[in-house]
Amino acid sequence: xxxxxxxxxxxxxxxxxxxxxxxxxxxxxxxxxxxxxxxxxxxxxxxxxxxxxxxxxxxxxxxxxxxxxxxxxxxxxxxxxxxxxxxxxxxxxxxxxxxxxxxxxxxxxxxxxxxxxxxxxxxxxxxxxxxxxxxxxxxxxxxxxxxxxxxxxxxxxxxxxxxxxxxxxxxxxxxxxxxxxxxxxxxxxxxxxxxxxxxxxxxxxxxxxxxxxxxxxxxxxxxxxxxxxxxxxxxxxxxxx
Length: 241
Fold this sequence. Notes:
Elements: E1 3-7, H1 18-21, H2 33-36, H3 44-57, H4 62-69, H5 78-87, E2 92-101, H6 102-111, E3 120-124, E4 126-128, E5 134-136, H7 153-166, E6 173-178, H8 184-187, E7 195-198, H9 203-213, E8 221-222, H10 228-240
Parallel strand pairs: 1-2, 1-6, 2-3, 6-7, 7-8
Antiparallel strand pairs: 4-5
Helix pairs in contact: 5-10
């Protein structure tokens, strides 16, 4: 009996958006209007690349970025939840699927000593160039019309499950914990026995309830959370069963 926990990162594990938090490093803690207005829907990664160039041009170095990123607060109850999962790793496989980037997630998880809780992190690859600029690439290519062009979380989840099956790992239940519009695509892939846990008041919860109203509800069960303690209560319940 093993459960798969799938986490989004921004506004789910941490209580902020890591990509917008980095703006605290910019001169006067803001971006010029031209740069801010250059975002085009579905092309967030390209926009962030321009933000990182701007920060680099303004002399923002890696250590300053790291210091800033590790001050992001975790969501209410999340530290307790991740501690609980860490103590019960024989029951839970745990992955992150996020539109953030490897550098930010790595910094934040390691600073709080939570990196060992997660088996794998699927996010946009990032690295510092020889000139000290942070660069980010698309996670993969895909053909899903619903998702931003750099990342389809359903494709990530499906490929992970296929790989696990080849290793002989079949999950009793998948628990998907997220908040954003780009979490809907993987939630729609979940089966009757699985559970989606959208964060209360965020886009994912609204989109799931819109589907239910239009009489095309998701197949899986839905349990809304506002504190990660709600998630922990549910996990304690299923491992007792």
